[in-house]
Each structure stands twice: as C-alpha cells, then as structure tokens.
Amino acid sequence: MSKINIGIKILNFIIFLMIVVVFLIFPIMKFKNLPQMFFSTPTAKNPQIDNSLFERLDKEIENYLK
Length: 66
Known about the structure:
There is one protein chain. By secondary structure, the chain is mostly helical. The chain has one domain. 85% of the residues lie in helices and 0% in strands. It has helices spanning 3-30, 34-38, 42-45, 47-65.
C-alpha cells in the first residue's frame, strides 16, 4: 500500500471516531439530567431536601422502636 492509501484510511478512522463521539457519547451526556426534566419536584432540584427527609424518617423510626 502506498502512503496515500494509509493516510486516507487514518483520516476515515478519525472521521468515524468523531461521528461516534458526536452521535453516541454526546446525547448520553446530555440526557443524564432527564429525571430532572420530567420530575421537576423540589427534591429533584435540591437533593439536600431529600436527605433531610430521610434523616427525619430514620429518627422517627428509631423513636418508634425504642
């Protein structure tokens, strides 16, 4: 094979990698926050509220079991 053919194959591989990154990896990164889009509750926007709710629930369960 000549050097031109090897260069064209390398270029095609680089273009293929760019297409894979754009069409596969980028949408996955973009749709990681889908639950926040669909369930826009205060607990989805602010996870600290969720943690405090669980802590209060744990305390109530401990008090009930005592």
